[in-house]
């Protein structure tokens, strides 16, 4: 019986190829839009996970308390000072490493090549927090930080733009008008790895890292550390370390309204959870918007099936007159919509794979269609078919034979 119903459904669908193709197009676009957006969201999460892979679970990030900013407090935002760093370094029983991070835009010049780029200032401990892999040269040493040495480490893009035909190690570049000697070149990292805590716009490949003491002198930025990385001695020490850090900063900077901390501390897990929540929310929001196309397609299918019921009224009446049951008629129309939507779902999945490849190729953004997403696309298309076909199928099954046979 099912084989017969399936064959009849295929015959009915192929009887009007133009209408079938146009109906399919709506489902294909709707499914492809939803799946591509979800896959792009998965790609965004993979970028975040790769960024945090090199960071220890004992790493803490201190920054101004933007969560409790208000209009009145916006002008009271403070950076951390050298005094804060010294006080934090004395927390040896809870913290074993500290790295201040500052960023500033500057004109970088080598010969006739001149560009405005971001410069990062930090200390020799930064290597403990971020997986810097050197292609050549060496890292910044403690004595170079204390001595305000004019040295820098650069990324691969900087090397290619300013030193395309030579080894930059030992050569000089002008940073804010000051000659700085290049002592190291970082290995290239893939695009998915280049979102950096210290330099979110450019990443490691575009990095220019100098001693924090030199950075302060170049940019007259002494005392303004808006990001400081700390490493607790162990995971168990993290709560105590957070409490002690906030106490020190409250003692040095006070609190808003004598109760709200001016700084906040994130552990790596907290940051991951927060960012994944934001990415997930945005992805779902955009997917819902993309789902509107699928809703429009579902309405279109329902409309087409109602037209089909109208066109085949006499056929339905004849079939019921010679013994066809209501469930036969209902099943045939439901099978037709399921075939339409299931086929559209598979084509939409194929289109989403093609779109993912193009996005990855041109935008250099990973788009990940995992098995769960693929299965979801097929189930979503079948559910669309079931919902959009149920009313037309029920209406067809409810036709009275003698009235249907008189229909012109």
Automatic annotation (TrEMBL):
Keywords: Cell membrane, Membrane, Transmembrane, Transmembrane helix. It is a multi-pass membrane protein. It is found in: Cell membrane. The chain crosses the membrane at residues 21-41, 284-309, 338-362, 368-391. It comes from the Bacteria. It holds the Pfam family MacB_PCD. GO terms for cellular component: plasma membrane. Its main location: membrane. InterPro entries: ABC3_permease_C, MacB_PCD, Macrolide_Exporter_MacB. Belongs to the ABC-4 integral membrane protein family. This is Putative ABC transport system permease protein.
């Amino acid at each position: 019986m099912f084989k017969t119903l399936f064959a009849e459904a295929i015959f009915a669908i192929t009887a009007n190829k133009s209408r079938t193709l146009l109906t399919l197009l709506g489902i294909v676009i709707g499914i492809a839009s939803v799946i591509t957006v979800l896959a792009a969201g998965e790609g965004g999460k993979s970028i975040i996970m790769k960024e945090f892979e090199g960071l220890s679970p004992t790493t803490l990030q201190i920054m101004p308390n933007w969560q409790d900013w208000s209009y009145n407090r916006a002008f009271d935002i403070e950076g951390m000072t050298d005094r804060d760093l010294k006080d934090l370094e004395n927390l040896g029983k809870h913290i074993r490493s500290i790295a201040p991070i500052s960023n500033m835009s500057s004109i970088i010049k080598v010969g006739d090549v001149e560009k405005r780029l971001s410069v990062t200032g930090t200390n020799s401990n930064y290597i403990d927090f971020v997986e810097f892999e050197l292609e050549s040269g060496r890292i910044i040493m403690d004595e170079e930080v204390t001595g305000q040495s004019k040295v820098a480490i650069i990324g691969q893009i900087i090397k290619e733009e300013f030193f395309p035909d030579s080894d930059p190690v030992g050569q000089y570049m002008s940073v804010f008008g000051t000659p700085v000697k290049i002592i190291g070149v970082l290995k290239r990292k893939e695009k998915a790895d280049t979102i950096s805590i210290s330099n979110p716009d450019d990443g490691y490949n575009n990095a220019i890292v100098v001693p924090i003491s030199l950075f302060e002198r170049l940019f007259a930025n002494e005392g303004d550390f808006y990001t400081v990385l700390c490493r607790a001695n162990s995971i168990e020490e993290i709560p105590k370390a957070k409490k002690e850090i906030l106490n020190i900063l409250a003692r040095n900077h006070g609190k808003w309204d004598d109760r709200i901390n001016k700084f906040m501390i994130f552990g790596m897990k907290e940051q991951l959870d927060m960012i994944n929540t934001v990415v997930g929310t945005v992805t779902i929001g955009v997917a819902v918007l993309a789902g509107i196309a699928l809703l429009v397609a579902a309405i279109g299918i329902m409309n087409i099936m109602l037209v089909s019921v109208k066109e085949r009224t006499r056929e339905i009446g004849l079939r019921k007159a010679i013994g066809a049951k209501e469930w036969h008629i209902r099943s045939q129309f439901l099978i037709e919509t399921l075939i339409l939507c299931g086929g559209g779902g598979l084509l939409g999945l194929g289109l989403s794979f093609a779109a993912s490849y193009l996005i990855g190729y041109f935008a250099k953004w990973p788009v990940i269609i995992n098995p769960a997403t693929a299965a979801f696309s097929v189930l979503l298309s079948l559910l669309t078919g079931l919902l959009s076909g149920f009313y037309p199928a029920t209406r067809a099954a409810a036709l009275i034979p003698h009235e249907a046979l008189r229909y012109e």
